[in-house]
């Protein structure tokens, strides 16, 4: 067994067990509390981040032909001033190619060991990553530590567990012996080899740079493929931190560091297409907009494509035990990360004649008001939950829906800047909530990126469910929620969502309903337009490698 | 456990064990000998086949709008006179759709049980299938019983074992419990459901109608997808026999028989495109020509595509223990099924300065002559091995290469009709062998369907290996062979083929070298142009279904 695998064997075994039983487990604590980490690590992490500002970030990648990068902190409005290598893709790929044979010839165990060590070292820089994520993606500190940090590392380990499982299914050798007719007979010794497909390009998104970064890198790298990370131009630093660690670990383990590299760019001079279209690129992992994801799915034939994009996630409210608790759960989703998560709720379907909450009938307006009230409550301490907006275009989006509101329904809650004392120039927006009927379908069936949501008055609960599940099927959904005290309705709603190709959560309360648990929640079904790949199932890893064999008599 | 799974549990468990250890095993005896089957079964099988001639084959499929089919026996030159349902694809798909929910909602165990029963009943009509295959694909009786019969059934069972493995990886339920911060906590009950993708279309080839028919059907059907079988217009009857059994078993098990259906056609009125392009078609399994296979790979984005086509399979001869035995092994491949197999050898690379055989030096010409001599020997009893030609176009191909021979090299052995006393009008051709040098690359780098092969004089053994592996990478290869007594050379050749994305067999003697063993040989690597899918690995099954979940607090 490889030394690195031996070092991390226990954690891999735990991940394998968690994946198979799907209970709650984490390898990486998601809280940045000094009770867990001590007092020095958080302080050092922040200092390390600050020391990087205004400097050149070096990766020593062959084919560097200049510097690039223009990240602006959504908290300060100031450029980070960090430059990254600007790459000549062909020169880089030539260098990658020469590193491939030794990696391909390494055992799966060795490669898994290297990946485990990469994840372990990334866990050692979660504070650096948190500040980097905050000042690029605009997440709150807590979220940046967890969502694109510890939780994403768990997804990476999970993908590694599946890669291990899929590769372990292929034996290394076999003896095979049989008669052919009266005279013929054969005794063969067979050898089976895992073969990579080629370069895996990982296109990371702006809001959660490493959510697919860790799992996609682990899945491709462990199965023998070199990986090129392509950060979003707005969020390069978190990806650079991973790239540096990966290259370091590869070098120390005796492999070519170019097996993991990064190609950064700016909005003005994008580099993504050159990577996607390169003939050596065999695998593409993409997180980002539905439009670009769909384009890749349709136009990159001959390459393995794994996408996670977004949909118009819904809630169907049929009834509940306790109105305030349910409203708080929904409001949490509208506030968290300013609804820039792939799991954020957008469409809240409530029947026109209201619902039963506990033992009382509550009108549609009362339910809507309770949700707005829930939002107001979270806004009393917004910095922890809402963070900032990753992008100026979200302000334009909000403006646009403000204009549409009176035409299509009414504004239940307007969006406004949120004030953060520490960051007076932060780009922020509180949730905007529109009340509409199903006549406004055309506006709420779009995936809206940012804090705009709809409370949709349905003619009946059946109509609510029908509309929500139709939209899941046709427009995509990553999460869907149902609130009901009626077991029969829950069964029906589960079946309706599942048959629409969507997963569903029932009566989630007292927890962040956006939360997707590694090792337990299959994230993205692949059956609706919100993406074609799942974190993590066997299908996510099994096609990243092929098998060649040799047999000798 | 489902009753049908219980009935066949032992055979499934044996297949699972064989797949994981990859030793020699078969669930279906490949010999038609009456010592195994008794005297009645072979006779009854032949009689059943003959009773079908000149009749209407009924499948009771909704959407039948007429009759179609025009199969001509390559043995007799006469039409079989069997008509099959001509289908309105849209009407058929409507009927399929209504059968989907109950199949989707059945447990994986139930579906696996149904598939096992289908295979078992098909094993009961192997003699019917053998005669049907003979008089459509033109195979010899022995081959028709084994290759597209018993061996193909093994591939079906193998695919089923993998489908079982992949689905078993997904637990049915889980309990999940954790704290969120100080106040929040959650206890969730989670349910995971296997969801099919949609209709699986299986395009079968003319020469081995069920080689991919059984495995593709099993892989798609077991994972919840309805299957539409599309036979080649020249070889419908074997596929019809499977379709009828599958529909019967489904009906008896309480499911909609339309979950397996057949759309036959003629060359004049092809039906394939309507199936490939139908929006409900989500999965395509294709065996056939490289050109159509490539078209499907490139143009059916959004559908899961699994192809097996063909390449220009090679032999590299460096040295051998015993010339006659080696020559016989190679000659067997040139004769078997008139080289119409995807595993037939086409390009035989021999160094110009000859080889060492045993302790003696043997010239290039002597090696070539030994191979020709090997062919002559098999031709003493050709009917068992060579069979007939599936298609008139093969005669034209032979004619064409006869014309090219003098221009590019010389004819070492000309092709001629083979005489079968029982079938005086059989369409046959003995192997044509051309001697060429590497200057004739453009003619031997095509995949030639039928009994045309090349003995290629290489400047050196390294040049032979380089040429053969380059062609494997660029033009495709399903099997590759090396003969050498030098362990160092074998290691080098194995690495060269493997790195070219090709599997390789070394020094195979005394057995049919075309043979690919279910449960042991990974058939088709997917790394070269000869196909993108493998019989069978996890990748063949893992993406045929998706997972949806529901969680309740």
UniProtKB/TrEMBL annotation, chains A, B:
- What InterPro entries does this protein's entry cite? Ald_DH/histidinol_DH, Ald_DH_C, Ald_DH_N, Aldehyde_DH_dom, PaaN_2, Proline_metab_enzyme
In this record, what's one Pfam family?
Answer: Aldedh
**Could you tell me which residue ranges the Aldehyde dehydrogenase domain spans?**
72-494
What SUPFAM superfamilies does UniProt report for this protein, alphabetically?
A: ALDH-like
Annotated signal sequence range: none
User: Keywords of this protein's UniProt record, alphabetized?
Assistant: NAD, Oxidoreductase
Protein name in UniProt = Phenylacetic acid degradation protein PaaN
């Amino acid at each position: 067994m490889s030394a690195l695998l031996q070092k991390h064997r226990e954690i891999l075994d735990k991940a394998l067990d968690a994946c198979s039983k799907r209970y709650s487990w984490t390898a990486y604590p998601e809280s940045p509390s000094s009770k867990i980490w001590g007092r020095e690590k958080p302080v050092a992490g922040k200092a390390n981040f600050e020391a990087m500002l205004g400097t050149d970030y070096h990766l020593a990648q062959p084919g560097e032909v200049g510097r690039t990068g223009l990240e602006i902190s959504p908290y300060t409005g100031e450029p980070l001033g960090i430059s990254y290598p600007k790459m000549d893709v062909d020169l880089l790929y030539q260098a990658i190619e020469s590193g491939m044979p030794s990696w391909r010839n390494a055992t799966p165990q060795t490669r898994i060991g290297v990946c485990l060590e990469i994840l372990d070292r990334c866990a050692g820089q979660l504070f650096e990553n948190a500040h980097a994520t905050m000042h690029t993606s605009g997440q709150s500190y807590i979220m940046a530590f967890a969502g694109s940090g510890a939780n994403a590392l768990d997804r990476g380990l999970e993908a590694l567990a599946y890669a291990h499982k899929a590769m372990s299914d292929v034996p290394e050798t076999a003896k095979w012996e049989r008669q052919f007719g009266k005279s013929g007979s054969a005794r063969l010794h067979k050898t089976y080899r895992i073969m990579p497909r080629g370069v895996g390009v990982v296109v990371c998104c702006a809001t959660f740079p490493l959510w697919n970064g860790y799992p996609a890198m682990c899945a491709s790298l462990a199965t023998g493929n070199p990986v090129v990370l392509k950060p979003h131009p707005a969020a390069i630093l978190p990806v650079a931190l991973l790239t540096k660690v990966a290259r370091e670990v590869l070098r120390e383990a005796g492999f070519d560091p170019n097996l993991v590299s990064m190609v950064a760019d700016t909005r003005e001079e994008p580099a993504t297409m050159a990577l996607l279209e390169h003939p050596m690129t065999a695998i593409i992992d993409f997180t980002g907009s539905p439009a670009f994801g769909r384009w890749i799915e349709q136009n990159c034939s001959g390459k393995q494509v794994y996408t996670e994009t977004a949909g118009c996630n819904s809630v169907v409210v049929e009834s509940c035990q306790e109105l305030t608790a349910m409203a708080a759960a929904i409001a949490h989703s509208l506030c968290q990360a300013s609804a820039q998560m792939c799991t954020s709720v957008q469409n809240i379907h409530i029947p026109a004649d209201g619902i039963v909450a506990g033992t009382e009938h509550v009108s549609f307006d009362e339910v809507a008001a309770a949700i707005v009230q829930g939002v107001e409550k979270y806004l009393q301490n917004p910095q922890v939950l809402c963070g900032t907006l990753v992008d100026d275009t979200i302000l334009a989006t909000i403006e646009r829906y403000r204009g549409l509101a009176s035409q299509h329904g009414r504004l239940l809650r307007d969006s406004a800047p949120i004030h953060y004392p520490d960051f007076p120039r932060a780009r922020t927006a509180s949730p905007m909530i529109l009340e509409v009927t199903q006549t406004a379908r055309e506006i709420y069936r779009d995936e809206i990126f940012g804090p705009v949501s709809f409370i949709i008055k349905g003619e009946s609960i059946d109509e609510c469910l029908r509309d929500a599940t139709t939209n899941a099927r046709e427009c995509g959904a990553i999460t869907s929620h149902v609130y009901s005290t009626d077991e029969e309705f829950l069964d029906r709603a589960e079946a309706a969502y599942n048959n629409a190709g969507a997963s569903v959560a029932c009566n989630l309360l007292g927890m962040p309903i956006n939360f997707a648990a590694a090792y337990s929640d299959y994230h993205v079904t692949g059956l609706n337009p919100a993406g074609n790949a799942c974190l993590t199932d066997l299908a996510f890893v099994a096609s990243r490698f092929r098998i060649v064999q040799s047999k000798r008599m």
